[in-house]
Amino acid sequence: MLDERFFSATNICIVGNINRDIKLSPIPPGSYLFADGETSVTSVTETVGGGGANSALAAAALGARVAFLGRVGADWLGDRLERTLTSHGISAYLKKVSGLPTGTSVNLTFTSGHRHFLSALPNNASLAFEDLDLSALAGYDHLLRADTWFSDAMLYTGNERLFRQAREAGLRISIDLNWDPCWGVGSPAEVQKRKEAVRRVLPLVDLVHGNTRELNEFADSNDLQQSLRALEEWGAGAVVVHLGAKGAGYYQHGLLTLEESVPARRQVNTTGTGDVLSVCMMLLDQEKSSPVSEKLRLANSIVSQFIAGERALIPAL
Question: How much is the pTM?
């Protein structure tokens, strides 16, 4: 029977965003937020942010051996983030750049379940292939390219160069197909150009990760099954589907395997659940004998415990 003891035998190398997150407890949505005044909240917490860094910390907390590659400013916040990674056993390969501020994101969460992020992330936006110390790939089995959309240099040339190097080193590759900040804001031509840049690298990708809304938007479709077929036609090996309260799925060779969510006893963590689910499935990808349904059930159980605050997978700064 598959259980989480397997994680201690796994490893992952992650390239992605790293910044500070300031998280507010949920507040009611409403027009009052646009008026002068002040809104009291139950809590304000400060954590490591960025999908890549969050994934690295979650993987390390589960027992995996983890390397993280990213870019920060040569400032106090960059140093603080690096210390947080290393204190949790992560091998940090951070390019430090003088005069470049390390970024911060303010996470607004609402009682309706919706979220909104206010972000200034110059370090992540300027990440380039040349910043990456690819000696970090040695000895690892899986590469995650998180935060796919945030750096133009990586989007248009860097991702393909990284994936080819990882392939040559024998790593399997995951890509997090999260929400592009350009969607709904940029011109149709710009949005399509960015989507095409990711579609071109899918033949190099073993696992695509995303929720229904993200996958459909990326595939220009309103139907999940159609979107999954398109991803497979574009070359993706398989897709891990985040279904929120409905659970999770795994699509490969035309078959979508679904597993229901595990209800959480309470809701403490409202962000980071997708990162946790994806990390579990990437680490479990290294276990070849168990059926995918069993992997999904274990991942859903861990996500439920994270939501309930029973697992400190993403630590405070």
Answer: 0.94
